[in-house]
Design brief:
This protein is α+β, with helices and mostly antiparallel strands and 803 residues long. The protein is built from 26 helices and 25 strands. β1 (125-130) and β2 form a beta hairpin. The chain is rod-shaped, with a radius of gyration of 62 Å.
Length: 803
Amino acid sequence: MEVAQAAYTGVFALATLTSGYGAWRAADIAERDTRLGLVSVFVLAGGWTATTTIQLAITWMAAAVWLRTIGLIVGLASIGAWLYFASAYAGHEYHRRPALRRLAVGLYLIAVLIKITNPTYNLYFTTYVSTEPFTHLAFNPGVAYWLISGAAYLSVGVATVWLIEAVSASHIKDWRLGVVVVLTAVPAVVDVATGLGRVPAQFVETSYAPLGMAVFALGSFVFLNETFRPIPRFWRKQVLTHLNEATVIVDSEGKIRHISPSAAEKFDELRRASETSFADTAPALYRCTVQDDPIFEWETDGGTQYYRVIETGLSSERVGAHRAYVYTEVTESERTRRELHRKSRVMDKAPIGITIFDLDQRDDPLAYANNRFDELAQNDLENRSDLTALFCDGKDSEMAATVQTAIEEGRSVTIERCDDQDDQPGFWTKETFAPITDTEGEISEFAGFHRDVTQDKKKQERLRQYKSAVEASPTWIFCIDTSERLIFANENFRQFYGLDSSRIRGTRIDSIVGEHAAEKIRPPIRQALDGESVVFEVEADSSKDERQRFVRAVLSPLWDDDGEVTGVVGSVHDLSEVRQREQQLQVLDRVLRHNIKNTMNVVKGSAELIEQQTSSPEVVNTAETVSEHSKKLIDMAGKIRKVTKVLSKSKKAESTDLIQASKYAVSNAQVEFPEAEITLETPDEPVNVPHGTIETAVKELIENAVIHSDQEQPQVSIRVWSDHDASYLEVSDDGPSIPEEERDIRTGEETIQPVVHGSGLGLWLVKAIVEQAGGVLQFDDNEPRGTTVKLVFRTSNHLNVVR
């Protein structure tokens, strides 16, 4: 065998083996029609090259003619297989249409018939023996050959265009695909040139087209790294193309195998991608793709977009596992979802209860309740059922009728409900129900808004009580703002000044009280507006009569929640009767001092003169009795004067030190009663109480203890101390106990008895002094003998007094 013959035979034999390899590899394609078509292409192409190999290897020309005819018949069948494969792979349905399949088979049989009958009329080709470059069977193509070959090459071209379009649907562009297509077409071009006699004499006149199939087998499955195998027809054509979704397909190693045009347009990281790792090529998109949440944000020049990624496997028993990532833009729906989620969170965290009632659910219309409503419902276990019953027909109550009428009329309604339980106080809720309309404007649901107004109700009740108390108070009560205009005045104030209750607000206070009183009250008002409470006395002129009233007013600042003074609250006490009593006491004091005391001094002096000028024992005894009782009456008159003086004094804010008052009283008592043993125990720090003649009260208690003692040396102890609650002064003696009827003087339960030794009046004087200083008087038995009198002064705030 010559060298050229061996070379040609080897090339076509290699092509036969390559086609067989292609058929074996194509059997792994997952999609059935694509697999069947491509396996058929390689099997038929291998059969074609096999007949050509044998034809070139033998020298028996008759057999070579039949081998060529068989090869052309098999080669023509491979064209049909190529069309079938291309249609299936590109996602077309031509290979499935019965009419087209019958037409293709009919044309093929006609071509086969022409080839078989060619020896009769030689329209397809004629043969002859050629000796260049070696002895072989050569042929001259006929008219039928060119017609059938032209139709075949046209079909191959159409199918190739389908393949190029299918592969180009992926954004990944591979130059190797172009090389494979060109190399596949080269043998066909050589065939045409050979038939036209446009090739050198060294070229054997045979069909080179099968060599293109071998090139395609090597290129598609080796150089193109199995481009045709991973992507099934449905995904490639129906999903990736028709649905126009952004799609990325990766293989089992994470390398990108397909990028749809939509994906490259939406994600800039994919525009220059190649068959490399998805994580390396597009790291930002990869992180979003593999995160737990299927929805992710993607920033673009136009703003934030939202995408939902769906991952699906493309695996089969014939191919390794591939994954397809499909990205669907859900910007509008995601924004709506997030807005609804945000509103839902707001509703769940709202400080009021929120409910939604579905009117179509008659048995249980409550469709939604937020957390606050559940908290409110816990206060009343029947709250839900009672509430939902308002929306049901047949609820026999005025409240339910009101709600159901509002539902029928499609309007909002507000009600207040109280849950009165025996084991808990009333729980009030204020509830507003408003209609919710659908997109067509029809009312489908009602929204409920529920507030706990229990505290508001309690405040309203307290305010009502306060208002009633203020209105009914005999004290005149009023309130002015910072511009000294009335905000409020109670009934007694309005009646005294003849004010109309509907027109008092905004009236200046100085226009009501008169010019003289206005001048007197301006400084205290300014003090109160500066945050200081003030007490002052003034004469008030009534609008109803000519009689003046002497009043005591207490002005206190009105504070807001921020600690700012927004006005002044005043309470006015009518002291006219008190002033009248003071005047009467003063008159009685003068009468007592000038008349009774002087007269009794005359009586006492006359009794003493009689006692000196008579020697009659009976007369002397009578004169001594008159003198003794006169002295008692004079002493009693002195105590009454002291009581009158105490009662006629007004309280002052200046404080008195109990220690100094006690020392003063003890010092005087020790001079007056030298026979008594008087001790004083005091702390180191001053003990202050409101102003009062405390030393008079202490001196009176010491005198009472010494005078009424039955001991030769009376023992009297005084102790002063204080704690954080009160200040104390205690006087203890060792004499006989004070009778209960005299102790009762401190509570007002017993009147002063003139027949008793007179201590009752003294205790009454002490009581008046202590009470005027804001204290109380207490009695206890002293151990082992005697009485303890305690003065208690509670700690409190005191007002400034303006006289």
